[in-house]
Design a protein that fits this description.
Radius of gyration: 23 Å
CATH topology of the largest domain: Rossmann fold
Distance between the termini: 54 Å
Number of domains: 3
Low-confidence stretches: 1-28
Bound molecules: 2-acetamido-2-deoxy-beta-D-glucopyranose
Mean pLDDT: 86
Shape: globular
CATH architecture of the largest domain: 3-Layer(aba) Sandwich
Strand order of the largest sheet: 5-4-3-6-7-8-9
Helix content: 40-55%
Number of strands: 15
CATH class of the largest domain: Alpha Beta
CATH superfamily of the largest domain: Glycogen Phosphorylase B
Length: 463
């Protein structure tokens, strides 16, 4: 049973109604904007004890989803997270306040990590390889990604026993990441509404082609081209061409393949966008602090920075190290959890640059350690990034430009030295550079002087 309350603008609840199980589908079919309105007006806090099924992403996508999941649990919802047996991210042995529902996939953890490593590698090629290498890598990767989607979808929605098990649990809504296949098909199979949470897809393919988001090529830059909303004629032409290419690639490749998988599972012709487009809400991990002004459909809700929280105290040894930096303060440096393979040459470049600055450096890095390390640098396998960024001694953040870290830096007012590696990272840093919060360096071509100069500017230049 669900409880829906209306609240006035000050947030005081003055009217509540009860509704039976059919609440969600009814609302959704009657008018999605009504559902949105209800959520906006009353906030999640007055809808009690829903049953939520979560189809999580991997790596940082799961960390993002987790923030929402924990908040739902906090508000007394009962949450179940679907995990496949090959997931490289979700730690099943950890004690959690939500349930896991494990399902079998005919894959090993190694297959999955290899796929994601390839994804990272592709971007290295894109920065550094020849056109032909990039093309052949891209098509390899798309093929393995497609087969991954097909395998997971069949193991998930193609397994009638599993679907029946889930149906019996009477979920009321599904929360899904579009990078994890088939949350939409599962919602369809269980006949419940679903919410997509995501940051962005390239060329806004999903948002545009499935979610009806308007993207006017005259002033909405097509990620990933580095452009602002102020484009000249040539840039607009390139922008238009870029949208065109993304659409063509999607229609000729991804959508064609996925639609065949979807059709096979549903047993009738079904396109991907037909299913994805049924999403009732899209939680977009973005924010106007970051975006250029542009139109969005009303069921797109901005949750960028949803994971930002005031800093907690650091572990004692780290706090001691941070305090030892005196007035110079510290620099926080990490390329995130996915990137572990720095070549020796690049490692030495970072070490020699960071050894020259007066600040202490807290470096989160899980890969092979440099042979010698200047006294002002400490390397940790894992660092409490949020808490470090919120520390009053933190002067700068060297980041690969993953959106989570950037939002934390914005939240705590820490300027950035961005060294983008792959995916949306170049765009992220580009935008922040344009807005005066960051300096961007090129990972493959920078040298230690560039890094030192960049850091000095970020730390000392009051602009
Ligand atoms: C999973 O969680 C358990 C319990 O918190 C912990 O001991 C273990 O190291 C974690 N495993 C990984 C791979 O993070
Ligand atoms: C990038 O290209 C240069 C020159 O072609 C090469 O020496 C270097 O190893 C490449 N780096 C990576 C990471 O592929
Ligand atoms: C289908 O799901 C059930 C219940 O989760 C599981 O026991 C069974 O092994 C699955 N079948 C296949 C082929 O994976
Ligand atoms: C790490 O980099 C080295 C040298 O570039 C390469 O030989 C090795 O295969 C890489 N390892 C992984 C796991 O990517």
């Amino acid at each position: 049973m669900l409880l829906l309350c209306a609240a006035d603008r000050s947030g005081d609840i003055h009217h509540c109604t009860y509704s039976e199980k059919t609440f969600w589908p009814e609302m959704a079919s009657v008018n999605p904007s009504l559902l949105l309105l209800a959520l906006l007006v009353c906030g999640l806090h007055c809808i009690h004890s829903g049953q939520v099924l979560v189809n999580p992403g991997e790596y940082s996508h799961w960390q993002n989803m987790r923030v929402i999941v924990e908040e739902l649990v906090e508000r007394n919802h009962s949450v179940t997270v679907l995990v496949n047996t090959a997931s490289p991210t979700v730690n099943l042995t950890r004690q959690e306040r939500f349930r896991f529902h494990l399902f079998n996939v005919p894959l090993q953890k190694e297959n999955m990590t290899a796929l994601w490593d390839d994804f990272v590698d592709l971007w290295k090629y894109q920065m550094n390889g020849t056109g032909w290498q990039v093309l052949s890598k891209t098509s390899d990767l798309m093929a393995s990604f497609n087969s991954y989607i097909s395998v997971i979808c069949k193991a998930l929605v193609g397994n009638k026993t599993l679907v029946e098990d889930l149906r019996r649990s009477r979920y009321e809504v599904i929360l899904t990441d579009p990078f994890t296949p088939c949350g939409d098909l599962m919602a369809d199979a269980l006949d419940v509404p679903f919410i997509i949470t995501m940051r962005i897809t390239f060329g806004f393919i999903y948002e545009r082609m499935c979610g009806q988001m308007p993207t006017l090529p005259s002033f909405v830059p097509c990620t990933p081209i580095l452009a602002t909303d102020q484009m000249n004629f040539r840039e607009r032409l390139v922008n238009f061409g870029s949208y065109f290419m993304h659409s063509a690639m999607f229609l000729l490749h991804t959508s064609k393949y996925l639609s065949s998988v979807y059709s096979e599972i549903k047993g009738k012709p079904t396109s991907v966008c037909e299913m994805v487009g049924k999403a009732d809400l899209w939680f977009i991990r973005s924010h106007w602090v970051w975006e250029y002004p542009r139109p969005f459909p009303p069921n797109f809700i901005f949750i960028g920075g949803h994971h930002c929280k005031p800093a907690k105290p650091l572990p004692l040894d780290l706090e001691e190290f941070v305090q030892s930096s005196g007035d110079d303060g510290i620099v926080v440096f990490t390329f995130g959890s996915m990137f572990k393979n720095l070549t020796e040459e690049r490692r030495n470049m970072f070490v020699s640059a960071l050894g020259q600055i007066p600040q202490k450096v807290v470096w989160g890095f899980g890969g092979e350690r440099p042979r010698t390390l200047p006294a002002n640098i400490r390397i940790y396998n894992w660092i409490p990034q949020k808490d470090l960024l919120g520390h009053p001694k933190t002067k700068a953040f060297i980041s690969h430009g993953g959106s989570n870290g950037l939002y934390e830096a914005i939240y705590h007012g820490v300027p950035l030295l961005g060294v983008p590696l792959f995916a949306d990272q170049p765009d992220n840093i580009f935008i922040l550079e344009k807005k005066g919060a960051a300096i961007m360096l090129d990972f493959y071509n920078m040298n230690s002087d560039d890094l030192v100069k960049g850091l000095r500017a970020v730390i000392n230049d009051p602009s």
